[in-house]
Amino acid sequence: MKSLKLLQKQGQFLKKQQQFINKGIYLFSATQQQQQQQNLNEEQTNQSIKIDRYSMTPHEYYITQGNAMERPFTGKTWYIQDVGYYHCTVCESKLFSFDQKVQNNTGMATFWNHIEGAVKTQDVPQDEAHENCKPNLVNVHQVQEQEENQNQQNKEYKQCLCSKCNSHLGLVFSDGGPPTFLRYSINSASAKFVLKEHWQDPNELKKQKNDKNQKQK
C-alpha cells in the first residue's frame, strides 16, 4: 500500500512538473510572438513612410539619405537658443527638446539626450559613408578624424537615426557631460527647429501663482 501511495505521489508530482514546463513553454512562445509582431509593426511603419526626395532640398536629401554631415558652423540650428522642438525633416517626428540642447563650441546643434523613443543609434556602416562629399559637407568618418585631431583622443561614436523613418540625423559621441555622458551632434538639415507655442517660463508661472494666492488672502 505504501508503495502504491508513493507511486501515486510521484505520478502527481511529475504531472505538475509537466504542467509547469508546458506553461513555461507557452509563456516563452507568447513572448516570442509578441516580439516578432512588434518587429513586424516597426518594419511596416518604416515601409509606410515613403521618402519623397522632391519634398526636400537637394542638401536635405543628401544628408538625411546619404549619411553626410554638415561642416561645423555652417548649419542653421547650432546657435538657436529659443524655446521649441527639433523635428525630423523627413517625417516630422519630434526628436529633441530645447531643454536638452547644450551650447558648446563644436559648431553643431548638440544635445545631451533626446525625446524618449524618437532616436536610435547604430554602428556607422563603412560601405555607406560617402568618400566624395560636396564642398560644404563631410562624411561621418571624416568627422571622427577631425574630432580626434582636435582633442588628441579617441572617442566612441555611432550613427544617429530617426526611429520612425530611419533618416540620418548625425552622430552621437560618448564624451558628453552628466547625466547621460552622451553628445548628440545633429545636422540642421536633418532636424528643423519649430517654436513652441503658448509656452511660459516655469518661474514666471510660479510667480503668477504666488501673486494670485496673496491677492486671495
Automatic annotation (TrEMBL):
GO BP terms, alphabetized: protein repair; response to oxidative stress
Broadest EC class assigned to this enzyme: oxidoreductase
Keyword Disulfide bond (UniProt): no
Catalytic activity reported: L-methionyl-[protein] + [thioredoxin]-disulfide + H2O = L-methionyl-(R)-S-oxide-[protein] + [thioredoxin]-dithiol
Record domain MsrB: where: 49-196
Cited Pfam families: SelR
GO molecular function, one term: peptide-methionine (R)-S-oxide reductase activity
GO CC terms in record: cytoplasm
Entry's EC annotation: 1.8.4.12
Keyword Transcription applies: no
InterPro entries with a match to the protein in the record: Met_Sox_Rdtase_MsrB, Met_Sox_Rdtase_MsrB_dom, Mss4-like_sf
Entry keywords, A to Z: Oxidoreductase
Family: Belongs to the MsrB Met sulfoxide reductase family.
Protein name: peptide-methionine (R)-S-oxide reductase
Species annotation: Pseudocohnilembus persalinus (Ciliate)
